[in-house]
Amino acid sequence: MTTFVLIHGAYQGGWIWKPTAEPLRAQGHLVLTPTLDGCAERKGQIRAGIDGVDNGIVKLLAERREWVLQLAKVKRVLGIPIYDRTREQALIDRVKGWGSEHKLNEEFVEVVFRLIVMNSKEMQYHEAV
């Protein structure tokens, strides 16, 4: 058995060595793939990018809210029930698929959208009063 220490280049991490490390480990070698610091000066820029994405998510939720309120009015006029089990399950299945396509955990996507749907139903019930 041989010990390998694989060091990544700039702007990468130990993950970059996964395709190399796994076969070596399967052969019984000890393979170390540490992630080294070195891009700390970018931390602020990276966090600002995350904050921008978070702000975008909130804006999209607000836009979705407006659509939901319009739908509540239509349902009220047409006498359509707010809760539609079939539609809700179809939505959950669809977004889980989209999440999977983007390498997101399907359970996480489902939980997030169930919360969104729950809030949407509450808004519609409130609007219907």
Concise account of the structure shown:
By secondary structure, the protein is mainly alpha-helical.
Please state how the strands of the largest beta sheet are arranged side by side.
Answer: 1-2
Mean pLDDT: 90
- What Rg is obtained from the alpha carbons, in whole angstroms? 23 Å
- How far apart, in Å, are the first and last alpha carbons? 72 Å
CATH superfamily of the largest domain: Chorismate mutase
Instruction: Please tell me the total number of domains.
Output: 2
Report the strand count.
2
Q: Note poorly predicted spans.
A: none
Polypeptide structure, described:
With 129 residues, this protein is mostly helical. 66% of the residues lie in helices and 5% in strands. The protein has two domains: 30 residues, no CATH class; 70 residues, Chorismate mutase (Chorismate Mutase Domain, subunit A, Up-down Bundle). Strands 1-2 form a two-stranded parallel sheet. Helix 2 packs across helix 4 and helix 3 packs antiparallel against helix 4. The radius of gyration is 23 Å and the shape is elongated.
Question: What attributes does this structure have?
Answer:
mainly alpha, Chorismate Mutase Domain, subunit A, 129 residues, 5% strand, 4 helices, 66% helix, single chain, 2 strands, two-stranded parallel sheet, 2 domains
